[in-house]
Amino acid sequence: PSATDAGARSSPAFAEPRQPDMDTRSPLVVVCEDPQRVAVACVPEFSYAFQPIVDVVSREVYSYEALIRGRANEPAFHVLERVPAHAKYQFDEDSRAAALALAVQLGLTCHLNLNFLPQGLYATDTSVASTLSAAARHALPIDRVILEVTESEFVADYAHLGQRLNEFRSMGLM
Question: Full-prediction pTM beyond 0.85?
C-alpha cells in the first residue's frame, strides 16, 4: 500500500521530526518571498505547506505534497483567486519551481508532489519543462518529482493528456 490512501494523506502522526517549537499537528509551512516569482502573477507573498504523505505499512513519510497557502496560512483559493486570469498558467508553472526550490532548501529527501493545471500543457510549451529545469538547477533527482493533475480544470482531450503524461514519465517524472 502506498501513501495515497485518503487516511494516510491527512495523518501527520508519522511525520519526520520537527523543530520543538512547531505544532506537530499541522503541515510544515515555509514562506516564499522571492519577488520575481510573486511578480509574475501579481499576487501578494505566499507560502507552502508541505503535507506529509505517509506509507501506512512502513509508517514513514513517502513524500510531501506542496500546498500553496497565504502568508497567514490561508487556504489555496485565497491565493489563487488573486492571480489574474492572464497569468494563471505562468503562475502555475512558476509556483511549481518555487515549491521545488523550497523543498530542496529545507532538505526534504523523499518524493515531492507538485500540482499542475492540465490546460497549462496547451497554454505554454514550457509548462512541465520548467519543472524539469528547476529540478536540474536545484540538483533534485527528477524521479523524486510526482506531478499531480489538479481536478479543478476540465480536460477536453484525455488521450492527449495521457500521451503527454507518458512523455513526462519517459523523462523520469512520476
Answer: no
Which residue, among 113, 35, 45, has the nearest Cα to 78 in the 3D structure? 45
Please name the helix (run of DSSP H) or strand (run of DSSP E) that holds residue 103, with its range, or none: helix 88-106
Sequence length of the chain is 174
Using alpha carbons only, give the angle 2, 13, 74 rounded to the nearest 5 degrees.
95
Quote the cell numbers at residue 53: 504523505
Render pLDDT for 144-158 as a digit per residue (tens, 0 to 9). 999 888 888 888 888
**Cα–Cα–Cα angle for 67, 69, 74, rounded to 5 degrees:** 135
pLDDT digits (tens, 9 = 90+) for 23-36: 333 344 444 444 44
Residues 89-123 as b or e (16 or more Cβ within 10 Å = b): bbbbbbbbbbbbbbbbeeebebbbbbbbbbbbbee
